[in-house]
Specification:
T-fold; 3 domains; three-stranded antiparallel beta sheet; alpha+beta; about 325 residues; about 25% strand
Length: about 325
């Protein structure tokens, strides 16, 4: 049923090196300035705690800390790390929140090295510094065992989306669609009574020969995130080097999917699982997604055009 007292307002800004946008249902008389400021404040707090680009963030200070020191971390950071550890364990290490030094070694991230194939000895030494199993907690404090560097870039953006959703609920906003850098979380109904509907990417931009069917999903209490090599990669000696690094080998993922999309109850888990399934690849990723009942969509390049593979749980979400 249409509610004539409500309008859809659209707000936006920048955060985490990308843009954010929020569509929300509000009474026509509501002042939007406090809502805009509040949304930005939620995202700014995530950056202040978890950014590897900000030298003063909690994460950056931990990464620089001396071996053997303990560091109390804010509640939100602990929540994200707990989720990251869960996904790391469930994916058998395909997701790893300590992967930052390896990502940098291959020329990506806040502390990217020159884009060249690393020396094998340096690669081995860098791998030895990483590993989610090195995380040791004592209450709210995390041990810096020496050389361990946290990188939450594959999960913090999704968490930021969820924090905005949580805050909007607290502000009695009955329905909203929140997006940060392509990660989305929607809840409630628009004034016309319809849920928020989003279009999942149909094909890589560079390949329109055989477009896959448009996939439209309703997000009512659901979140969606997409990962893949379409956004961040470079060529070296004719070989594509993906920003998706396999923690188990220390090497960029070979023939990474153009896009892996995951739907979850929150954007934090959708974000992390999209990365994990990208690392696992279509076959192993689809097997795990099917076993865990994760809605996942894999879009692979082929000589005949893009090839789409859906998990049973993703198929069940389609109209």
């Amino acid at each position: 049923m249409t509610n004539p007292q409500l309008d859809i307002a659209r707000l936006g800004g920048t955060t985490m090196g990308t843009s954010w946008s929020v569509s929300l249902t509000v009474p026509r008389s509501r002042d939007l300035h406090p809502l805009h400021a509040g949304i930005q404040a939620q995202l700014d707090r995530v950056v202040a705690q978890m950014s590897t680009w900000e030298p003063a963030s909690n994460l950056s200070r931990y990464n620089r800390a001396a071996a053997g020191s303990w560091h109390p971390l804010p509640l939100q950071t602990r929540q994200v790390l707990a989720a990251a550890q869960d996904v790391a364990a469930a994916s058998d290490g395909a997701f790893d929140p300590t992967l930052g030094p390896l990502v940098a070694l291959w020329g990506f991230g806040a502390h990217a090295a020159a884009r060249s194939r690393p020396d094998p000895q340096i690669l081995a030494a860098t791998r030895a510094r990483c590993g989610w199993q090195r995380l040791q907690w004592q209450g709210d404090a995390l041990l810096q065992p020496g050389g361990l560097e946290l990188d939450l870039s594959a999960i913090a953006k999704g968490f930021g989306v969820d924090e905005v959703v949580r805050w909007l609920h607290d502000q009695q906003i009955g329905a909203a669609l929140v997006e940060v850098g392509g990660e989305l979380h929607g809840y409630g109904r628009k004034p016309d009574g319809q849920p928020w509907r989003v279009l999942v990417e149909s094909a890589p931009e560079e390949d329109v020969r055989t477009p896959t069917p448009p996939r439209v999903l309703a997000l009512d209490g659901k979140a969606i995130a997409t990962s893949g090599d379409r956004w961040h990669h470079y060529q070296q000696d004719g070989e594509p080097i993906s920003h998706s690094v396999d923690p188990r080998s220390g090497l960029p993922v070979q023939r990474a999917a153009a896009a892996v999309t995951v739907v979850a109850d929150n954007a934090m888990h959708a974000d992390a699982w999209a990365t994990a399934l990208t690392v696992l690849g279509r076959d192993a990723g689809l097997e795990l997604a099917t076993r865990l009942q994760l809605p996942a969509r894999f879009l692979q390049r082929s000589s005949e055009g893009p090839v789409e593979t859906l998990s049973p749980a993703f198929q069940a979400l389609l109209p």
